[in-house]
Amino acid sequence: MSDTIELLEAIGQNATLRHASADELASILEQANASAALRSAIAAGDSSLLSKEFGHKPNQAPQISNVPGHEEDESDDDGDDKPHHPSEPGHSQPHKHTPHKQ
Amino acid sequence: MGMTLGSHLTPLARSQIEQADVVFAALSDNIVELWLQRMHPDVRSLQPYYAEGKSRMKTYRQWVELMMTEVRAGKNVCGVFYGHPGIFAWSPHKAIEVARAEGFKAHMEPGISAEDCLYADLGIDPGRFGCQHFEASQLLFYERRIDPTGYLVLWQVGLVGDLSLKRFSTGAAYRQVLVDVLSEDYPLDHEVIVYRGATLPIQKPRVRRMALRDLPGAELTAEETVVLPPSSPLKQNLAVRERLAALDKEAFIA
Fold it and tell me: Which CATH number covers residue B41?
């Protein structure tokens, strides 16, 4: 059975494969001996079916929030989870947060 | 990392990953993390530091400290984030700021962002009518000026209005507040687009169209973005055009 991650990478990098129809891709993946999970995900148009192979491990969308409403709180301590800051000279305080996107 | 596994990782970004001593990762899919793990023997996921009920600000500061701990230990550290590491991403910018303040070299490589994919997938040229981008919550917390003659892109609508930074979604009532704010500039039957880009190469982008009034009742994930196309035509600025015409006349006479 072909490695699913390698197949996904190959599909992602190949213009033909990336934009192939589900039927076209299904045929190619059968020839490539793709896993049942990958083939069923493509046939159903549902990538969540890959969980059969990789488990269900949802990622949080990283970096949610540009900290709206908390710009002035950036320097606040959070108590026992406060990260350690070194005491070397020259260590600057965090700057006031400004929005990234304009 | 870009948005889509296999498609968007730039050669330079891959080289940075491969040449690092340690890699920290905040990615869209666990499958993308598995792909990244094949590029480097020491990939450390930042995902475990998220938790429902925990301020995301705490999480982001922990991320910075995790990376800086390795930097201070003399390692070449690479932080890998999905899309573009500097767009809707506090900790990469902060890590660079802190590292430079402590005398370390640090920089950011750009990546293909969700915004880039949105333009391609929806056929939008931000230069045509102009395009404003806001995190949806910022539009509620602050008085911002919206120009309805251009595109308006609202990010992270799924958790609009969350002041606590501890939730990963808010509900229909909060989205209704957003719709009420938007209705000051847009008719309620204005068609909006709800968009999610593909993170795996076997996915297609998810594009749904609905009336603005229906947004509160729609099912919405944290990754989805709301686009409001222009609701009014561009209005000529006659006074400025007259001034420019006068300049043109002087230029031709001269």
Answer: 3.40.1010.10
| Option in B47, B55, B163 nearest A69 (CB) | B163
* Residue B3 belongs to a domain: no
Distance from CA of A51 to the nearest CA of B (A): 9
Q: Give chain B's domain count.
A: 2
Q: How far apart are alpha carbons B172 and B217 in whole angstroms?
A: 6
Q: Write down the pTM of the prediction.
A: 0.86
Nearest CA in chain B to A61: B28
Q: Which domain holds residue B20?
A: 11-101
Mutant choice from B202, B204, B207, B220 vs A, greatest count of A C-beta within 10 A: B202
Give the full edge-to-edge strand order of the sheet including B225-228: B131-135, B151-155, B225-228, B191-196, B206-211
Question: Residue A87 above 80 pLDDT?
Answer: no
Whole-complex ipTM: 0.89
Could you tell me if residue B251 is inside a domain?
no
pLDDT at A72 over 60: no
Q: What is the band of B148 on the pLDDT scale with cuts at 50, 70, 90?
A: very high
Q: Point out the residue among B27, B61, B156 whose CB comes nearest to the CB of A65.
A: B156
Candidate list B14, B38, B49, B60, residue with the active-site label: B60
B247 interfacial to chain A (CB closer than 8 Å) = no
Q: What's the pLDDT tens digit per position in B203-218?
A: 999 999 999 999 999 9
Is B119 a known active-site residue? Answer: no
> Is B60 in the active site?
yes
Going from N- to C-terminal start, the domains of chain A cover 4-54
Tell me the Ramachandran region of residue A18: left when phi exceeds 0, alpha when psi lies from -120 to 50, beta otherwise.
alpha
Spatial separation of the C-alpha atoms in residues B24 and B26, rounded to whole Å: 7
